[in-house]
Structures are given as C-alpha cells and as structure tokens.
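Exercise 3.2. Students should predict the tertiary structure of the chain below and write it as structure tokens, then compare their answer with the key that follows.

Predict this chain's 3D structure.
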Amino acid sequence: MTDREGAVLLDELRSTIGKYVVLPSEEALTAVTLWVAATHIQTALQHAPRLAVMSPTKGCGKSRVLDVLYETVHDPMMTVNTSPAVIFRTIGKIPPTLLVDEADTIFSPKAAGDSEILRGLLNAGHQRNRPAWRISGPEHKPTPFPTFAMAAIAGIGDLPDTITDRSVVLRMQKRKPGEKVAPFRTRYAAPELNALRDRLAAWLGPLRGTAARMVPAMPVEDRAADTWEPLVIIADLAGGHWPAQARAACLAMTRHEAVQDEQTSLKTRLLRDIHRIFERAKNPEALPTLDLVAALIQDADAPWADHGAKGLNAYHLGNLLRDFGIGPVNYRFDQGKQAKAYLRNRFLDAWARHCPDLAQAEAPPEPAYGTSTDRPTQRKPPTAPAGSLPVGLPGGPAGSKRTP
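Answer key:
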C-alpha cells in the first residue's frame, strides 16, 4: 500500500467513525481515527495513550464510541468491570487493546480497594517497561507482569486526574437536535468496520519497524508529547493532509484540557474553602448563600475577591458548583427567617470524589434528611407519651425547616 493509499484509508476510517458517533469536535474525530490506527502498531510504540471518553450524564454516546472501537482496533478486550489480576494475566508481548466501560463504577469513592490497584496499572501501562511485580506460581517467585497496552476508558463524570493526564480526552455531550447518526447494529456495522480494521493491519504491519525509529516533531512537550506521539507517527506515515491535521488536533485538544484543568483546580479549591467555612461554623446544617459568599471573599489568600469583574457573587457561586450537582435551596433558619442557603449534606458527595482527604477526615455520616443533630441550640420536641404519636415535625427537630 502506498502512502497515498494510507491517507485515503484514514479518510475512510474517519468518515465511517463519524457516521456512527457525534464527537465533541472535528479535532476529536481526527484524534479517535489516529488512535484506532495506532493500536495496530502497539509493539513499535514507547507510549500507549489512553482514550478517556467522559460524559456528564448518560445518553451522550460514550458506549457507542466503545462499540465502534471494538470493531476497528487491534485485538479488543471489552470489559465493564474487571480485576487487576485479569489484566495482569491478559497483557503480554503483543498486548490487546483494553476497552473499559462504566469506569465511574470502578473509580467511585464507594468502589472496592482494587480500584487503586487498577488505576496504578492503567497509569503504569502508559509507558513501556513498567511491569507490575507479583508473587506467582507454586514456588511463589516474584514475577513481572507487563502493563503496557493501549486502553480506552469510558465513564460518567471525571476520571482520575492521573489517567486523564495520560489520555486523549473526549468530553462527550448529548446530540443536538438535527445531529444525526446512523443506527448501529452489529450485524450491519461490523462487516464495514472490520474491513477497515483489516486494511489498517495490512497497511501498518510492514511499517512497524519504520514507526519504531520515527521521532516526529511535536507541537507539545512532556507528557502531552508522549501521549500524542503515536497518533502523530500514524499521521506522518500516512502523509497528505494528515501530518498537519494531526498536529492541529493535538494543539487544540491539549489547550482545551489545559483550560479544563485550570477550571477544575479552581472548583476543587472552592470545595475545600467551603468545607473549611462550614467547619469554622461548627458544621451547621446550612449556611445562607450571602454569608457563604462573604466568607469566601474575606479570605485574603483565596482568589474569590478578584473572581469576575467585581468579585465572587451568588450567581458566580451557583455556576461554579453546578457541575457538582450542588445548588441553593430555600431554608428556614431560627426565628422563622427564610433565605437562600447551601445545605452541607449536598457537598458530601463532591468532597468524597474531589477532595478524598477531606472525606476521610469527616466524622460519621450525618443523619438522614431532616434529622441534623449538630445544632445544639435548637429546640427539641417534647417526649411523646407512650402509645401516642410524636410531637413536632416528623423526622427532624422543631424550629428549623427546609422549604422546597
């Protein structure tokens, strides 16, 4: 196959992938096309880029991306939930391509202890010659298990930072009205996709030695260059418009992730600052929005006084917390005063996910909705006589009430 034919093949693959899924951008479609092709020269690569397929909610097409990858990548190994031991024993000298769906169930705060081992394995497998050592066999000998393999990891919400840092990141969204895709039925789609897979293998198989010697000029540095180099190698092997297109995609997507990282760092700082403010107030059930904003602005070491044109306000706070599923509610404080407020228990999940050190330091979980006990000055309902109904609001202390 000539170089020109390689460029045409990538064009066909790109068009076919775009037929079945709507990706976040044209650059993302280019990146997925090159990532698929790179799986066919894994043995020639020094780095195995991850493909992080993340969506804020269900129904954004992340699983469909994995369906398409399954029919086009080299030796796919699809799994919804797996153990590190399985991965250790599956990866060999010619590794499969790992396709991990429902990753949010693996890396959630409630996941089993193996999740950290699996995360370490996926991190190590980004670079060649990073084996995992285990005691194995009847003689209990220390044995190195290879970890190097390309992997696509899909889940709702953010993946661990250490994984996204080694990934080409796709931030999926629901399709807009008018954005159409072809129905994906394996019996119809697989033959077309498998034919492209076989042509990729035939084109790239003889070029593995060439690929291993290539040191392409990269538009980025450090780990981003490690992650994108296999994709740029594929583009350079294809020639035509692909070398320029690959580098443009690399720049656009890495810059986008740099902005996302900055916003994520800011929002994580906000979660930590709010945790500290609640702690200083002795962890009340709720804090008025205006009091919370004022406390944030008064911190001279924090960025909130300079946030926006005139400093952080209630609107900004709501926007920053929206991605965590946290918003203000109407809350009735003592003496019947009602105001917009933020409930402490709405932050617990975000603290557990994004500030795990704070979550570990938390006291035992708060009582269920309406049964807070950390307001000792509240009036308590009188003890009900035996056999009678309790006096006061069901499920909570008298004197405080949330209103929807």
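Discussion points: The first strand starts at residue 50 and ends at 55. The radius of gyration is 26 Å.
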